[in-house]
């Protein structure tokens, strides 16, 4: 895991959990692979091991990570698909309605927005 800047507005365990989710969704940590130990993460980020444990436990409760006794924590099979499904659900139920209200308030239409969207070819527009 890379260096992290902690946001004072969100509990550290939640930020750490989100970082692990990002790593899995981006394919940097694959299904079946181990995640760094609680002790290692606590030492690397100079945070309380209980904070790391809480983040990992939430991921275990959500079937994203699994404990293998004596071996550590591993990403479960199907975790990436589960995370994408959950992220899509959250976006469509929580974020998209707010975005649509803002779009309507600004008098924009979807065609206009589509024409302004940056191309996915890596060039800056």
From TrEMBL:
Q: Where is the HTH gntR-type domain?
A: 10-78
Q: Which UniProt keywords apply?
A: DNA-binding, Transcription, Transcription regulation
Q: Cross-referenced SUPFAM superfamilies, in alphabetical order?
A: Winged helix' DNA-binding domain (SSF46785)
Does the keyword Transcription regulation belong to this entry?
yes
Q: Which Pfam families match?
A: GntR
Q: Which segments of the protein form a coiled coil according to its record?
A: none
Protein name stated in the entry: GntR family transcriptional regulator
């Amino acid at each position: 895991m890379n260096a992290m800047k902690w946001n004072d507005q969100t509990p550290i365990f939640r930020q750490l959990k989100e970082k692990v989710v990002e790593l899995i969704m981006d394919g940097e940590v694959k299904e079946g692979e181990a995640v760094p130990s609680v002790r290692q993460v606590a030492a690397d980020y100079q945070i309380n091991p209980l904070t790391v444990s809480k983040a990992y436990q939430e991921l275990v409760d959500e079937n994203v990570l699994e404990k293998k006794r004596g071996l550590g924590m591993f990403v479960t099979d199907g975790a990436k698909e589960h995370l994408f499904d959950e992220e899509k659900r959250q976006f469509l139920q929580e974020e998209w309605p707010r975005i649509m209200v803002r779009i309507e308030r600004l008098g924009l239409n979807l065609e206009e927005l589509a024409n302004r969207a940056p191309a996915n070819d890596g060039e800056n527009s």
